[in-house]
Amino acid sequence: MDVSAILDPLNDEQREATSAPPGNILVLAGAGSGKTRVLVHRIAWLIQVENVSAYGILAVTFTNKAAQEMRQRTESLLGIPAAGMWVGTFHGICHRLLRQHWQEAGLPQSFQILDSQDQQRMIKRILKSLELDESKWPAKQALWFINGRKEEGVRAEHIPDNGDPVNRQLVRIYSAYQQTCMRLGVVDFAELLLRTLEILRDNEQLLTHYQNRFRHLLVDEFQDTNTIQYALLRLLAGKHGSTFAVGDDDQSIYGWRGARIENIQQFSKDFANTQIVRLEQNYRSSGNILNAANALIDNNQGRLGKNLWTNSGNGALLDLYAAYNEQDEARFVADRIQQWVNEGGKRTEVAVLYRSNAQSRIFEETFIAATIPYRVYGGLRFFERAEIKDALGYLRLCVNRNDDASFERVVNQPPRGIGERTVELIRQHANAHSVSYWQAATACIETQQLSSRAATMVGGFLELIEKLTKNILDLQLYEQIDQLLHISGLLDHHRNDKSEKAQSRKENLEELVSAARAYEHNTEDELSPLEAFLAHAALEAGDGQADAWEDCVQMMTLHSAKGLEFKLVFLCGLEEGLFPHQMSVEEPGRMEEERRLCYVGITRAEQQLVLSYAESRRLYGKENYSMPSRFIGELPRDLLQEIRPQIMVKQSVPATFQASHASPEDFNGIDIGRRVLHTKFGEGVVLNCEGRGSHARVQVNFESAGSKWLVLAYANLQPL
Question: Which residues partner with 661 through β-bridges?
Answer without folding.
Answer: none
